[in-house]
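Progress report, Aim 2. The chain analyzed during this reporting quarter is listed below.
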Amino acid sequence: MKKVKPMAISNVISNMPGALLKKFPEIMSWSIITAYRGSIAHGLYVPSSDSGSIDDKDIMSICIPPIQYYFGLEEYGSRGTREIKHHEWDIVVYELKKCISLLKQGNPNILCILWMDEDSYIKVSSEGRQLIQARNLFAGKHVYHSFVGYAQSQLRKMTHLAFEGYMGEKRKRLVKKFGYDTKNACHLIRLLKMGVEFLQSGRLCVKRNDAEYLLSIKRGEWTLEAVKKESAKLFKKAEAAYKKSKLPNRPEYRKIDGLCVDILRQHFADVKYA
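Predicted structure tokens for the chain:
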């Protein structure tokens, strides 16, 4: 198999505490892709210097842990996932097989890692580049259900779960100020717009061209009724895009399975054992 050239590693990783990277080698050492996610990747990050900021520095890694996790009794994380929180850093790591399983389902958060702008990637190995280059394998009309489902969840949180445990004090203060969760509202509209775009084109626009429009929602410049009205229009637009989409109904699972095998085979063929 032809080798795929890796991307360079971004200097941003030097901002992370060395002890954190040593304790959790999956963030970088085991990683095939490490990238910004969330507000930074979407161009919607509000820095902590802003009094209205509620954003963390969100990172996602896709890792291949050592071979014993595949042939021994060790299991990675909680069903292939590990969440790591350290001060301003909010990191989620997916083992490769778990990642590909979620990609196959059309999970919006995971799909984003395959369509990032170059400056959102911190590290991409040759195996990671191979996964990114195969991203069209995961395009299908089935993503409609994932994007709409996630959007409905944000709508419910925005209006009914204002002071649930997932909120920090800053976020609670914003809810008190504006009467609803403006960050959830921003997620709601973004997810619907991205879903429509994906169904129409088969690609994700992760870094948003409409960032100012979305930030105005996040800053609380929209009334709750205006957000609801806009989301209702977008839910209808998503349904119409689904019906008209020329994407296949679902991915080709055998090709995706073959991709996973190829990536793991390449990786462990290159690993040197003592």
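Residues 1-12 have pLDDT under 50 and may be disordered. Residues 22-139+251-270 form a domain with the Beta Polymerase; domain 2 fold (CATH 3.30.460). These observations will guide the mutagenesis work planned for the next reporting period.
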